[in-house]
Design goal:
homodimer; alpha+beta; Ribosomal Protein S5, domain 2; Alpha-Beta Plaits; 2 domains; six-stranded mixed sheet; four-stranded antiparallel sheet; 10 helices; 16 strands; globular; Mev_decarb (chains A, B)
């Protein structure tokens, strides 16, 4: 049996605060506008991926959560092709290295969260795939260069190659060479950012984001204005808010941009609905929590991706107000039982929003407590 | 007892197909953009109003559905002031006329539909008030001139002073003198337009339209684009569709503009939601019905005002497909029992949308079948 080379990584989930929606080039996954996300802690949510290569392997394979995946799609192929080309360069420069670029790859991947939770698993998945192969090939490539490759697998994957607060710049080049992610600030710059994910009970999902965003580009009368006017200003303002650790601006921009994105979905023909009555109740609950602030500033900010789950950002110092308020009405749901959840005290002051509480009790199946985290972590735990 | 002068009218409800949302002058109810509506038949939905005047009356009074209403608001006062001024002119020109302009008014009004149904009752109400007083005063004023007055009571009321297909032009003058309604086409030009109203079960209403629209103007990043770019083009296209009796264009514009308006509501900070899961199911049901068309043209068009009720427009020739499809899943609800409803045959082909059907069965409390109709009708039936 031939030698097996192997490398493994963990990669994080990221949740956008300025949303990616719309491609100017679907083949290369080039977006109509920039986006910014928070990388979430891999202690809570992560994809674990092992990439191996051996002359014994007869074809490229990908396994996710023990199920064989189709690897022939143009997006996965683009990632593999680019990574092999980089390895070939390295081998060319150092002829003593094994010729791994000529061998088939075996990629084994596992998420530590249920796929049904509707979290953006493809982002973590493609980031882990690219990072694991880059480790296997011992590429000197920077995270930003790798983000250009991961982007071709799944747009938002480019933001999971870094930790903390990450921007994906739209880029101007036709070949996408400058449509890459960069770190706005590290997790350690603003480490007290927390996220409470409210996982909504399974409902039949609306159109996929891949199909939906191009319908929006083609039919919305508002979208072009969002992409060309609204988002560029918000990108700058959000970067500034992050640099200044200005939660008020961060929160207002986050909520506005989530609503603006979903407004463009609704303005699509036929309209796309990702928010349902449960999502609306989560928004009203956040507004209620924010109304408790003595200076009328936000304690928390909601955001929704292409699904009904709410992600609620807040600062650690307000955990008992924000997570506590949700715990007071959602205690008993899966997710509070860990050490982090047990630590949250139900907030006593939840009154006058019984209607909202009832909707959430019916519509939310579980919660996930997490925080801002770092970028992909190399690991010696290999999957096989 | 002094002589009583009296005049009565019926006035219709109108449902916009290009939506009014946003005031550029809240005091005068001057809109940020034009709008177009269909006047609905007074055989089905109407406000009945009697205006009386007598030297015995000691104050202006208004009664709606047997409940005394506050008449001191600036909007009602503006209507009364303008109408009295016009009467004064008439009296000045013909001194033989009674000096009614100096006397107090008693206005008695009744809607033949439940206020709780969430139909735009203020439009019919102010149109009836203005029309009844104009009749009482025997004003020679044209419907368009009266629309300028009714607009100051409730913006969309100006569109209920005419029948058929009615536009309210934005106007350019600061005093609002050119912000008036005009008939795009009479009901008889395109008489086979039908409307099925799906009344959603009472839910706590979001913000009022008066407050909501100004929040949108103040906070939405998309609204200005809607008002200045999107609506003006649609106004022209919709007038053309009506002139040409082009249901396909009418339907597509109607659906797009409803979605565009609700998108701007969602883009408001805090977001305004009028559509709920029941509304969404009504949209999906219309899309299903339209998918049955052999040439992929719309059989029907949905539109939603500031609430969850759907109004579904269709042509008489497609009654069995459109109303029939809704009857097949909503049979047994109040509203089908009249002669018009009994005539509708449940459409047999409703399959594969059980999820949508279930949502509608739970969320819709009654249906109203109606059609395009004419403008206010003078009547000798007086309320007192």
């Amino acid at each position: 049996m031939a030698e097996i080379h192997r490398a493994s990584t963990f990669a994080p989930v990221n949740i956008a605060i300025i949303k990616y929606w719309g491609k100017r080039n679907p083949k290369l996954n080039l977006p109509t506008n920039g986006s910014i996300s928070v990388t979430l802690s891999q202690d809570d949510l992560r994809t674990h991926t092992t990439a191996s290569t051996s002359s014994d392997f007869t074809e490229d394979t990908l396994t996710l959560n023990n199920e064989s995946q189709d690897i022939s799609g143009a997006r996965t192929q683009a990632c593999l092709r680019e990574l092999r080309a980089l390895r070939k360069e390295v081998e060319h420069q150092d002829p003593s290295l094994s010729k791994l670029s000529d061998l088939k790859l075996k990629i084994v991947s596992e998420n530590n969260f249920p796929t049904a939770a509707g979290l953006a698993s493809s982002a973590a998945g493609f980031a882990a795939l690219v990072r694991a192969i880059a480790n296997l090939y011992q590429l000197p490539t920077s995270p930003t260069d790798l983000s250009r490759i991961a982007r071709q697998g799944s747009g938002s994957a480019c933001r999971s190659l870094m930790g903390g607060y990450v921007a994906w710049q739209k880029g101007e080049e036709e070949d996408g060479s400058d449509s890459v992610a960069y770190e706005v600030s590290s997790a350690s710059h603003w480490p007290d950012m927390r996220a409470l994910i409210l996982v909504a009970s399974a409902d039949k999902k609306d159109v996929s984001s891949t199909a939906g965003m191009q319908q929006t580009v083609a039919t919305s009368a508002l979208f072009e204005h969002r992409a060309s006017e609204v988002v560029p200003k918000r990108m700058k303002a959000m970067e500034k808010a992050i640099h200044n650790r200005d939660f008020e601006s961060f929160a207002i921009l986050t909520m506005k941009d989530s609503n603006n994105f979903h407004a463009c979905c609704l303005d699509t023909q036929p309209p796309i609905f990702y928010l349902n009555d449960t999502s609306r109740a989560a928004i009203r609950m956040c507004e209620y929590i924010n109304s408790l602030h003595p200076d009328d500033k936000p304690y928390c900010a909601y955001t929704f991706d292409a699904g009904p789950n709410a992600v609620v950002y807040y600062l650690a110092e307000h955990e008992d107000i924000v997570a506590g308020a949700f715990k007071s009405i959602l205690d008993g749901k899966t997710g509070w039982e860990g050490p982090r959840g047990q630590h949250v005290k139900p907030h006593p002051g939840v009154e006058g929003i019984e209607h909202v509480a009832e909707k959430l009790q019916v519509g939310i199946s579980r919660v996930i407590l997490t925080s801002v985290g770092d970028g992909p972590r190399k690991t010696d735990e290999h999957l096989c």
